[in-house]
């Protein structure tokens, strides 16, 4: 589902590469836990997997397509169809209500719109079903996102990433703002929903206690030669 080969990525004006990954392969439907200290390049790697960032060298392929072979507009379209992204700060639109936030991917992707309709009869019904699965009470569904607690916003962000069953779900430290009981409940829901939909999950965290729930665990240092070089220098 995801293939990296000979990737080199440097941020503009940086003196050295941020990422140098010779090979990384993530099987369709699997769940990967990726960990490493702050600043080690985890979010940068997720940006490359999602085609938000493009490598200066090497190949980052999803669904047999190399992101760097596409124009910006084609990357946006491929991402909208196939990638659900849960950001650390959730990135909900604060002035939209909960349902409209969850429906955003269906506005940008006909494929995800059609899948949601096929599953539940309408996109609204599918958004409601997902919100119920992630445990957000129905009386909150018409509230503006800005009026929700952090734990509630996180559930909305998960439902938004999952709607229309994207092949790839990317989660960037989505539990860092949560206390332990909320965190464990959220992990249960996210893993269950990804397994039900057959989505490939790439989950980043520095909290190694979560690692055992995943099919595979990798530290960024174990795949990134740039970081190894920096640590040895
Ligand atoms: N937008 C950016 N512009 C320039 N440098 C960046 C940017 N985002 C991250 N970096 C740099 O890339 C490195 C890795 O950052 P990041 O991927 O955010 O790490 P992590 O997610 O593991 O905390 C850091 O040195 C950081 O300063
Ligand atoms: Mg990060």
The CATH H-level superfamily is P-loop containing nucleotide triphosphate hydrolases
Predict the CATH topology: Rossmann fold
Rg measurement, Å: 18 Å
Largest sheet, in brief, is: 5 strands, parallel
Number of helices: 9
* Structural class by helix and strand composition: alpha/beta
**How much strand content do the residues show?**
15-25%
At CATH's second level, what is the architecture?
Answer: 3-Layer(aba) Sandwich
Q: How would the global form be characterised?
A: globular
Mean pLDDT: 93
Ligand kinds: adenosine-5'-diphosphate, magnesium ion
Indicate how many domains the architecture comprises. Answer: 1
Secondary-structure map:
Elements: E1 2-9, E2 19-26, E3 31-35, H1 42-49, E4 57-62, E5 65-66, H2 72-82, E6 83-86, H3 98-108, H4 110-120, H5 123-133, H6 150-162, E7 168-172, H7 180-197, E8 200-205, E9 216-219, H8 220-223, H9 225-232
Parallel strand pairs: 3-8, 3-9, 6-7, 7-8
Antiparallel strand pairs: 1-2, 1-4, 4-5
The structure holds adenosine-5'-diphosphate and magnesium ion (MG).
């Amino acid at each position: 589902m995801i293939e990296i080969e000979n990737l080199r990525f440097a941020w503009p004006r940086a003196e050295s590469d941020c990422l140098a990954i010779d090979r990384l392969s993530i099987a369709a439907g699997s769940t990967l836990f990726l960990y490493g200290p702050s600043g080690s390049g985890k979010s940068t790697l997720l940006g490359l997997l999602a085609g938000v960032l493009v490598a200066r060298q090497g190949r980052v392929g999803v669904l047999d397509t190399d992101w760097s072979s596409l124009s910006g507009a084609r990357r946006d379209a491929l991402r909208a169809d196939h990638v659900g992204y849960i950001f650390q700060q959730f990135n909900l639109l604060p002035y939209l209500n909960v349902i409209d936030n969850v429906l955003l991917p269906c506005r940008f992707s006909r494929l995800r719109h059609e899948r949601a309709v096929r599953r539940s009869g309408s996109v609204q019904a599918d958004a409601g079903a997902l919100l119920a699965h992630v445990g957000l009470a129905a009386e909150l569904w018409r509230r503006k996102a800005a009026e929700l607690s952090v734990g509630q916003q996180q559930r909305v962000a998960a439902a938004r990433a999952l709607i229309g069953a994207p092949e790839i779900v990317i989660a960037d430290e989505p539990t860092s703002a949560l206390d332990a009981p909320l965190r464990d409940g959220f992990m249960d829901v996210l893993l269950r929903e990804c397994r039900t939909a057959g989505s490939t999950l790439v989950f980043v965290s520095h909290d190694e206690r979560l690692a055992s729930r995943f099919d595979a665990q990798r530290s960024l240092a174990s795949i990134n030669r740039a970081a190894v070089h920096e640590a040895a220098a």
